[in-house]
């Protein structure tokens, strides 16, 4: 999972994030520590993680959890969703998203800006930019939220 994370960062953020960060030899070990904690530490027991495979090889990863913002009005936060560039458009991203966030759950995420492909993917799945921005690891990000309305009663 750590290797997929690093490779996807390199594919996705090259030109948006510093090459020094993306090519740092300690990045794989740092991502390995991240995933070890995310998958084993009791603090993250409410997180949901999923992987996508093709022919026995990992091609994508995802993780959601409770929102860190205590004032959040959404049920889940998408923290990680990466699929190798070669596997974009295969349905792996959709499957990963649905594995970690139920389509009936309200949710939020941060996405790099610019990253038109990812933003279009999230819009297709009901997320809209709410006007909130931040800079994380030198990358400008926009927050996108999905507010799921209760179904209307059938007359």
Automatic annotation (TrEMBL):
Pfam families: Acetyltransf_10. One of its GO terms (molecular function) is acyltransferase activity, transferring groups other than amino-acyl groups. The keyword Acyltransferase applies. InterPro entries: Acyl_CoA_acyltransferase, Bact_Acetyltransf, GNAT_dom. The keyword Acyltransferase applies. Keywords: Acyltransferase, Transferase. Residues 4-149 form the N-acetyltransferase domain. Gene3D superfamilies: 3.40.630.30. This is GNAT family N-acetyltransferase.
């Amino acid at each position: 999972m750590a290797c997929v994370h690093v490779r996807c960062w390199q594919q996705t953020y090259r030109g948006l994030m510093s090459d020094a960060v993306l090519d740092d030899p300690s990045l794989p070990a740092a991502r390995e520590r991240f995933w070890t904690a995310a998958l084993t530490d009791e603090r993250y027991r409410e997180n949901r993680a999923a992987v996508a495979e093709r022919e026995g090889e990992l091609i994508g990863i995802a993780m959601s959890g409770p929102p860190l913002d205590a004032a959040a009005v959404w049920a889940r936060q998408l923290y990680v969703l990466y699929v190798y560039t070669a596997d974009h458009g295969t349905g792996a991203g959709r499957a990963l998203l649905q594995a970690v966030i139920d389509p009936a759950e309200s949710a939020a995420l941060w996405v790099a800006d610019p990253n038109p492909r990812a933003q279009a993917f999230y819009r297709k799945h009901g997320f809209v930019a709410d006007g909130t921005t931040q800079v994380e690891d030198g990358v400008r990000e926009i927050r996108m939220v999905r507010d799921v309305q209760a179904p209307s009663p059938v007359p």
